[in-house]
């Protein structure tokens, strides 16, 4: 019998690009005479998989991209290197690449990082034993070094017209939303100002607001005859935060807390994540939906500096005030061996961790019209 465990030399199991990841493979074996080789592999992979209906069949579309795929042999049987029954610790060390993005775990796509211990045996079924251990990567997405407009307030508005039957009158319903800025980090709370001017006969029933995530997946389907690959783009929109209120005045301020989320991600050719703050007004109209408006936002990992004392701090110093919380695992890819010829490896149901901040106050106070 052989027992294998993986441990990393980190309290959080969250690592930064260009940082070193170290750990150990623990082996307790009573069958040392059959152990041929002990390997460790570190993997960072973006993977997309979804099905598309085509006439009476479903076609699998998938894509993958490796950010990290390195292997090291920790022990190999030879004349001078013999393994006896008992306990062993094999240390390993790897470097996270500079372009490694954050973990993603959405419905049809993921970016996953894991360590794999691979024990090869002589004369054993399947010729080996594999153990997986997942971890998270936190890229340095410093909002202070991106578009300066992220620090500025932003607003947008929409007007919906009510036309009376047998009348030339056109009555407007105007909705305006304002944000103090458009660059945020997880754990931050910000104020959303909603102003409504209603000249119609419709009653405002409620206002929905929150953060919307748009996921873009790019997958390929390979034909074997004639041989070529067809590409399909799938777009999914979900609400990562959502709340509903009944307006009591023409102007309302709502506070939104950004939960642990993958940061904005648009640098990958097969998987993109974009966020927006939305406001949707529900009215009493039967044949007309209420207006909905959006403001795109950017979620980073290093917050916008607000005070003079913060100006001199670099990104890694600011990270010292962050804590790491588990985000949601919305991935539904599952085990798709029946649809693909590629081997699906990795730990199951790992909750990714993201940098969060709790010492950020509301960005500014927005006055409310009386």
Number of H/I helices: 2
Q: Tell me the β content.
A: over 45%
| CATH structural class of the largest domain | Mainly Beta
Please count the beta strands (DSSP E, at least 2 residues each): 20
How would you state the average pLDDT, rounded?
88
* Number of domain modules: 2
Main sheet overview: 6 strands, mixed
- Low-pLDDT parts are 362-370
Query: Helix coverage percent of residues?
Result: under 10%
What name does the CATH topology of the largest domain carry?
Immunoglobulin-like
- Assign the CATH architecture of the largest domain: Sandwich
The succession of helices and strands, N to C, reads EEEEEEEEEEEEEEEEEEHHEE
The first-to-last residue Cα distance is 75 Å
What structural category do the secondary elements indicate? mainly beta
Shape: elongated
Radius of gyration: 26 Å
Family: Belongs to the arrestin family.
GO cellular component, one term: cytoplasm
Protein name: Arrestin C-terminal-like domain-containing protein
InterPro entries: Arrestin-like_C (IPR014752), Arrestin-like_N (IPR011021), Arrestin_C-like (IPR011022), Arrestin_domain-protein (IPR050357), Ig_E-set (IPR014756)
């Amino acid at each position: 019998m052989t027992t294998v465990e993986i441990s990393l030399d980190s309290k959080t199991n969250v690592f930064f690009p260009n940082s070193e990841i170290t750990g150990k493979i623990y082996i307790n074996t009573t069958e040392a005479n059959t152990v041929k080789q002990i390997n460790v592999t570190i993997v960072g992979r973006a993977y997309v998989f979804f099905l598309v209906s085509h006439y009476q069949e479903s076609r699998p579309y998938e894509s993958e991209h490796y950010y990290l795929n390195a292997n090291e042999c920790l022990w190999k049987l030879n004349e001078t290197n013999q393994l006896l029954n008992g306990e062993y610790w094999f240390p390993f060390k790897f470097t996270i690449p500079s372009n490694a993005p954050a973990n993603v775990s959405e419905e049809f796509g993921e970016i996953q990082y894991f360590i794999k211990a691979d024990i090869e045996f002589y004369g054993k079924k399947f010729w080996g034993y594999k153990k997986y251990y997942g971890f998270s990567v936190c890229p340095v997405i410093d909002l202070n070094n991106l578009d300066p407009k992220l620090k500025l307030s932003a607003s947008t508005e929409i007007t919906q017209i009510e036309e009376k039957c047998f009348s030339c009158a056109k009555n407007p319903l105007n909705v305006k939303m304002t944000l103090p800025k458009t660059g945020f980090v997880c754990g931050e709370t910000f104020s959303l100002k909603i102003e409504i001017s209603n000249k119609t006969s419709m009653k405002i029933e409620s206002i929905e607001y929150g953060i919307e995530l748009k996921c873009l997946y790019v997958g390929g389907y390979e034909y074997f005859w004639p041989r070529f690959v067809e590409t399909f783009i799938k777009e999914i929109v979900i609400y990562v935060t959502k709340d509903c209120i009944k307006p009591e005045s023409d102007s309302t301020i709502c506070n939104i807390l950004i939960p642990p989320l993958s940061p904005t991600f648009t640098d990958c050719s097969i998987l993109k994540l974009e966020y927006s703050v939305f406001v949707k007004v529900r009215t009493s109209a039967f044949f007309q939906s209420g207006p909905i408006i959006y403001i795109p936002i950017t979620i980073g990992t290093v917050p916008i500096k607000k005070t003079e004392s913060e100006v001199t701090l670099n990104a890694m110093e600011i990270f010292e005030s962050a804590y790491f919380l588990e985000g949601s695992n919305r991935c539904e890819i599952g085990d798709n061996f029946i649809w693909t010829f590629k081997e699906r490896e990795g730990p199951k149901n790992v909750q990714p961790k993201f940098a969060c901040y709790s010492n950020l106050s509301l960005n500014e106070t927005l006055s409310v019209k009386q």
